[in-house]
Amino acid sequence: MIYPIVAYGDNILRKEAKEFHRDSEDLTKLVEAMYDTMNNANGVGLAAPQIGLSKRLFIIDSTKMEEEEGKGVKRVFINPEILDEYDEEWSFEEGCLSIPDVHGDILRPEKLTIRYFDELWNEHEEEFDSMTARVIQHEYDHLNGVLFTDYIKGLKKQMLRAKLLNISKGSVKTDYRMKFPSKK
């Protein structure tokens, strides 16, 4: 199943997601559908709020972004908690499936340590770096109601306002299905 991706302007993207309970969903089907949705939109990460589910769950596939063979990971993160972010901050142009055609240079720490459960409910505590850490940080932000555009400041932010308003009104074309905020 391929879900429509929730567009910028929908309130669910601004809410802190609730803990994912072991018996709350058919996890196997949900994860499979999230990967199908992400891949259909050519993404490298997808958080549950982006498909309209306010749960602390995201998936990534950073193998598409890592230049070094075997460096990226394809992983499910349930109820994640970033324990530490460290090392040099570095800038990279980020985008988001919920905010199509908008990009911005975002500073993030190079490394992180995260605790999470996988889809089999095994607990992990791992360190990630480089692009994988960045994708995790981006998706983790979604669980806390934070969007990458929140890090953009000044004139660049003002220049994006019209684009963001158009997205929230449904005036954007994508190669994937989107769910736009309800008109009031």
UniProtKB/TrEMBL annotation:
The question of whether Metal-binding is a record keyword is answered with yes
| EC number(s) stated in the UniProt entry for this protein | 3.5.1.88
Provide the residue positions that the database annotates as binding Fe cation. Answer: 96, 138, 142
- What cofactors does the UniProt entry give for this protein? Fe(2+)
Q: Which reaction does it catalyse?
A: N-terminal N-formyl-L-methionyl-[peptide] + H2O = N-terminal L-methionyl-[peptide] + formate
User: What InterPro entries has UniProt attached to this entry?
Assistant: Peptide_deformylase, Peptide_deformylase_sf
The active site consists of 139
PANTHER family, from UniProt?
Answer: PEPTIDE DEFORMYLASE
Described function: Removes the formyl group from the N-terminal Met of newly synthesized proteins. Requires at least a dipeptide for an efficient rate of reaction. N-terminal L-methionine is a prerequisite for activity but the enzyme has broad specificity at other positions.
- What this protein is called in its record is Peptide deformylase
